[in-house]
Structures are given as structure tokens and as C-alpha cells.
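[job 4471] stage=fold_predict status=RUNNING
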Amino acid sequence: MADRSQFLEQYRYYMTPESEAVSQWHYGVSTIHGLLQTEKCAQALLSAGGLDGEELSRQVEARIGRSELLERKEPPHFRTILSEAVLRTPLPDRAAWCQQLELLLEMSERRNITIQAVPFAVGPHALKNSDTMFLRSPDGSTVAWRKSSYSNQNGGACVEVADGFPGVVPVHDSKTPDGPAVVFEAAAWSSFVGGVRGEAFRG
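[job 4471] inference complete, writing C-alpha cells
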């Protein structure tokens, strides 16, 4: 497993449930999941998210290191369903994009990994605008990341929250699903959501 100290502090809490999960299920609207990214793909996506210099190098190394969990003796079952849009949004570097697609093909041949795509022809469906991630723990409980209904549809103000963490509610930017999260106490988050619904924060 990657050295957790490499990750941004707010994101480290996620490493334990991910590393202990017996299965992971992902639906990607806009990007390939971090566990299936090549180094050049991770670099391009993290750079687009605003990282550069030593921090960019550190986060790329950390993200690639996470994929070690798929290499262990008894790896979790990992299933990802990608929107066709993901496969039709190449990296600027053609060679790097070909390398990324080759990795997906290689990983899809593994017994514990399932990669599927949802074609545009399917039309509207429930997850059309929502990146979703489910982690199933050894005790059978499931943690689910979901996009907040307060997120808009033009790529901005996108917030995802996670269910299943006792006493806390992790929140992160859905445009960077592998990025850092802010963790709130459950009571504080409930109070905040109640305030938003009641327009308590309207200026």
C-alpha cells in the first residue's frame, strides 16, 4: 500500500476503508478511476486540477501507489462502469492516451476486475450526472459516495458526500473524485444542511 503520508491530509482517512474493502464499485461520468490510471494520465488530471511542481509529483506518486492494492495476493473485486464520454475525452498526449487505453484492456482481463461502458445510445439514466463510488467492507457494510442534489449541472459547485462513516460525513469536490475531502462531524453537517434548506445563509 502507498505511504499515506504522501496524500493530502484531508484525504488520508479514506485510505483505510479503501484498503480494507472486499469489493469496490465505481461509476465514472468524466474520468477513469485513480486505481486504473497510468502515471501520465494521473499527472494530466491532477495538473488540470491545479497542482504543479513538487506537490504534483508527490500526488501522482501517491495515486499510482494506491493501485498496489489490486496487485496483492487476495485483491478486492473492482468494478467500474464508464460513461462513453470518459472514453471519448482523450489526454492531450496521444501516446499517453493510447497507453491508458491499453492499461484498461490489460486490467479488464483480470479475474477480479470488471470494466464496462455505458454508450450514449442508452439515453438518460439515473447516474447520468453523478460519479458514484461504493466500498464494501469485510463486515458487509457499504460506504457510498454520492453527488449532492445541490450541485448544479454545468460542472460548477459540485459537491459529493459519503454515507456510511460512523459519526462523520466526508465531503469533496466531484470534479476531482480522487482528490481530498473535508470531514465534518455528523451533527455539524446536519446543522449545515438544515441551514441551507432554510436559506439561513442567504446574504
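[job 4471] summary: The beta strands are 23-28, 77-83, 113-118, 132-136, 142-147, 159-163, 168-173, 181-185.
[job 4471] exit 0
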